[in-house]
Known about the structure:
The protein contains ten helices and seven strands. By secondary structure, it is an alpha/beta fold. Helix 5 (131-137) links the parallel strand 2 and strand 3. It has helices spanning 2-10, 16-55, 81-92, 113-116, 131-137, 158-165, 182-187, 231-241, 260-263, 273-276, and strands at 98-102, 121-126, 146-150, 173-176, 196-200, 243-248, 254-259.
Amino acid sequence: xxxxxxxxxxxxxxxxxxxxxxxxxxxxxxxxxxxxxxxxxxxxxxxxxxxxxxxxxxxxxxxxxxxxxxxxxxxxxxxxxxxxxxxxxxxxxxxxxxxxxxxxxxxxxxxxxxxxxxxxxxxxxxxxxxxxxxxxxxxxxxxxxxxxxxxxxxxxxxxxxxxxxxxxxxxxxxxxxxxxxxxxxxxxxxxxxxxxxxxxxxxxxxxxxxxxxxxxxxxxxxxxxxxxxxxxxxxxxxxxxxxxxxxxxxxxxxxxxxxxxxxxxxxxxxxxxxxxxxxxxxxxxxxxxxxxxxxxxxxx
Length: 300
């Protein structure tokens, strides 16, 4: 009541009156921009869902059924990786269903949490210990299906860490998402031969440019696009290690590699960065349904 009375008095004083009018106009503008931003966000989300659900299979670039993008879906992943990983293993066979993931976040949103619910077993490594709480809360992960380590990984320590955890020399899926030094961590795992590798790439770099950050074991991502490696650099490293680049997710975040001896005619070639590249579409990230969680684990 007092504030309203005071405002009435001030509104009659020259100069103060004009300032109050400007302030009210600014507030109206801010509210309008906020409403427009929400509407535009909803339109972007609706358009991205329409693209995935209705248009992707008809687009000339993705018409080949051997392309992986039409199979994308997200249960615990960020960018449809769950569906792409599932489709890759449908084509090459499930193997022993063992994974190793480096960079698992809080454990509820990554590339292997959904696999745990399907009876897979594996290894989680992250420099942040927040994922341990997720494991502790999940009673059905206490049967030895998941081994973990809170470690800041480097090119120098990653192979020894895998050996200490008991990661087999040959296993099914390696997922790498540590932003800055991802290229060099894969380079440090030359003694291990996973059947499939999912690795983050820097989509800001054109697909015909071989580029990677300078290596510094303690360096972390500063939030800019000066991180990781281009898709071309990863394609060439993969080729050196015996892998083919078979696709990328639509948002331009992860690249998918399959070991040479498993590729045959199962995927859409040529297996080059120029053919498989997807540009950065980070704004299209859209979680469907309820908040993420690790689903109950089914029998192996």
